[in-house]
From TrEMBL:
<dbReference type="Pfam" id="PF03938">
    <property type="entry name" value="OmpH"/>
</dbReference>
<comment type="similarity">
    <text>Belongs to the Skp family.</text>
</comment>
<protein>
    <submittedName>
        <fullName>OmpH family outer membrane protein</fullName>
    </submittedName>
</protein>
<dbReference type="GO" id="GO:0050821">
    <property type="term" value="P:protein stabilization"/>
</dbReference>
<dbReference type="GO" id="GO:0051082">
    <property type="term" value="F:unfolded protein binding"/>
</dbReference>
<dbReference type="InterPro" id="IPR005632">
    <property type="entry name" value="Chaperone_Skp"/>
</dbReference>
<keyword id="KW-0175">Coiled coil</keyword>
<dbReference type="GO" id="GO:0005829">
    <property type="term" value="C:cytosol"/>
</dbReference>
<keyword id="KW-0732">Signal</keyword>
<feature type="coiled-coil region">
    <location>
        <begin position="59"/>
        <end position="133"/>
    </location>
</feature>
<dbReference type="InterPro" id="IPR024930">
    <property type="entry name" value="Skp_dom_sf"/>
</dbReference>
Length: 195
């Protein structure tokens, strides 16, 4: 085949393919198709969000439970401090008598101090575990309460999803009209005052 004819066929093919592509993307005479906002698409995605920071700061249950936990922690710390004080007192007594003790008495005193130290360490671990369990229990109760209210709100308003929004989090912008934090807090705090 003649090279000039071959070159002309390539150019014609390229132009035809280009025209076909341009036609498909709507360059020739069609108005540009814009995506409709979700609210205009009929069965759109209906969502809401809560400010988790505001919820934490203004939900009375959290403040009350945090106060209860702090009081419990203080009582447990006092209990631990009493044991530590007893150990220190006993250790000072044994140390003051160390010069006149026999080897067997020194070994017995050392065993007594070690036993008391072990008891204190066990108590410290037990108290930390108790506090952790209380915190977990509080978090579970908090989650359940909030989840129940959010489920009711979702059913009432047809929300498919309710997000937890925190400034500086993964979501950079969210429509403030979708904020239901105050509504949720109103229900949560009303439930708390009814108890």
């Amino acid at each position: 085949m003649n090279p000039k004819v071959n070159s002309a066929l390539h150019i014609i093919s390229f132009v035809l393919i280009s025209l076909l592509v341009l036609d498909r993307v709507g360059v020739f005479g069609e108005k540009e198709k814009k995506a409709k906002p979700v609210s205009q698409q009929g069965e759109g995605f209906n969502f809401a969000y809560i400010h988790s920071d505001s919820l934490s700061a203004n939900y009375k249950f959290i403040a009350e439970r945090a106060k209860e936990l702090a009081e419990k922690e203080q009582k447990l710390t006092e209990k631990l401090n009493i044991k530590v004080k007893k150990l220190e007192t006993r250790f000072a007594q044994l140390q003051s008598k160390a010069d006149i003790m026999t080897r067997a008495e020194l070994e017995a005193a050392q065993a007594e101090v070690q036993s008391m130290e072990m008891e204190i360490n066990q108590l410290r671990m037990q108290l930390a575990q108790e506090l952790d369990q209380e915190r977990i229990k509080m978090q579970m109760e908090l989650y359940k309460r909030v989840e129940d209210v959010l489920k009711d709100k979702a059913a009432e308003h047809g929300y498919q999803t309710i997000y937890s929004y925190t400034q500086g989090g993964q979501v950079l912008y969210i429509n403030p009209d979708r904020n239901i934090t105050d509504e949720v807090l109103e229900v949560l705090n009303a439930e708390k005052s009814e108890e």
